[in-house]
């Protein structure tokens, strides 16, 4: 086996397609069988379209929504509006991940489903990794890509520093229908200690996803519905969504311990990509595109090593350098922007100021998004 990819989200699936297309023997281990829902804003910047086309995975057949405009509201309901220079598309992870999975299967990628990776160790003498699956199977790939998401027990096994730090954030996602909501708009609505995004996906549906804190949840009895009524409904735009929308499943998808702390792109000879390498704040709306681009960077570095163009040390250095050059500044800007929102007074002031300074809005978007690749 040339490459084992741990995690079958966007970064992992893109890398699997990419490396298989370059002629390598690729396997991917994912904890859940496809298709399944993930907590995600489900908006993708158009910067990824050339890459997806090269992979033979243009998403147009999925009936994606074409998104061209951006709206941002303050907790009291004041609204800022701006065009999206590059634009993006909306598609559920349920549909997109399944689509990429089917493409990867057709390309010859071997899937371990469902499978949990229990441990990864590098055998320097053999020049390979020793990977143990929870069911007792062992694998010996030449290269391992870590694409398993925001937080996993494997982070503990690899002793990654961020894993020892508690994160206050949790994410909640619904799919819904809301007559009259413009399908070319992605809207972000602020509330105390959080913000929510809503945008169109396939089949006339909308993705409604928000980030908040455990403190917000605990203050309202640990019940999501109670917190929504007490906190999110204070923003009139969010109140209208909850009152007027048809929610398409009874319980939301929820994820805890979302960490925006810096991470290393290479850990113990594992090339990390997607959220496992670093997570941009959802307010910036570019996590899905970054995951796909990270998969592309990891694939290019792994390919050069596998064809013996570079050594392992050179592969790791090249990937870490490329990852930091592409994403380092975006993550720093994202963390800074995150700090401007959540507090009602500051959020009102920022939205009010940006409404009169459209150039600043465009500049922030450019600093948190990339060019087509």
Automatic annotation (TrEMBL):
Pfam families listed in its UniProt record: DAO (PF01266)
Looking up SUPFAM superfamilies in the UniProt record yields: FAD/NAD(P)-binding domain
Look up the domain of life of the source: Bacteria
* Residue stretches making up the FAD dependent oxidoreductase domain: 2-35
Query: What name does the UniProt record give this protein?
Result: FAD-dependent oxidoreductase
Q: Which organism is it from?
A: Hymenobacter nivis
Species lineage, top-down?
Bacteria, Pseudomonadati, Bacteroidota, Cytophagia, Cytophagales
């Amino acid at each position: 086996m040339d490459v084992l990819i741990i995690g079958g989200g966007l970064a992992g699936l893109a890398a699997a397609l990419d490396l298989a297309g370059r002629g390598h023997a690729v396997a991917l281990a994912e904890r859940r069988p496809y298709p399944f829902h993930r907590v995600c804003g489900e908006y993708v910047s158009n910067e990824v379209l050339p890459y997806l086309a090269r992979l033979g995975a243009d998403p147009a057949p999925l009936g994606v929504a074409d998104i061209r405009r951006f709206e941002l509201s303050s907790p009291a309901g004041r609204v800022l509006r701006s065009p999206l220079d590059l634009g993006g598309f909306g598609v559920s992870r349920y549909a997109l991940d399944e689509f990429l999975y089917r493409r990867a299967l057709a390309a010859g990628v071997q899937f371990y489903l469902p499978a949990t990776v229990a441990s990864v160790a590098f055998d320097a003498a053999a020049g390979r990794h020793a990977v143990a699956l929870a069911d007792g199977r062992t694998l010996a790939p030449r290269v391992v890509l870590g694409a398993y998401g925001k937080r996993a027990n494997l982070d503990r096994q690899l002793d990654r520093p961020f894993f020892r730090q508690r994160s206050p954030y949790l994410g909640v996602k619904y799919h819904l229908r809301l007559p009259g909501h413009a399908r070319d708009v992605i809207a972000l609505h602020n509330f105390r200690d959080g913000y929510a995004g809503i945008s169109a996906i396939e089949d006339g549906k909308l993705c409604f996803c928000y980030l908040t804190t455990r403190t917000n949840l605990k203050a309202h009895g640990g019940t999501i519905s109670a917190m929504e009524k007490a906190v999110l409904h204070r923003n009139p735009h969010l109140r209208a969504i909850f009152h007027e929308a048809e929610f398409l499943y009874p319980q939301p998808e929820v994820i805890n311990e979302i960490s925006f702390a810096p991470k290393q792109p290479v850990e113990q000879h594992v090339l990390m990509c997607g959220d496992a390498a670093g997570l941009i704040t959802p307010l910036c709306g570019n996590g899905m595109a970054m995951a796909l681009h990270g998969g592309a960077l990891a694939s290019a570095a792994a390919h050069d090593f596998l064809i013996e163009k570079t050594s392992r040390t050179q592969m790791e250095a090249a990937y870490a350098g490329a990852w930091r050059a592409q994403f380092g500044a975006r993550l720093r800007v994202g963390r800074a922007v995150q700090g401007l929102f959540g507090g009602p007074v500051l959020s009102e002031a920022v939205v009010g100021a940006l409404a009169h300074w459209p150039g600043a809005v465009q500049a922030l978007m450019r600093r948190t998004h990339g060019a087509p690749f």
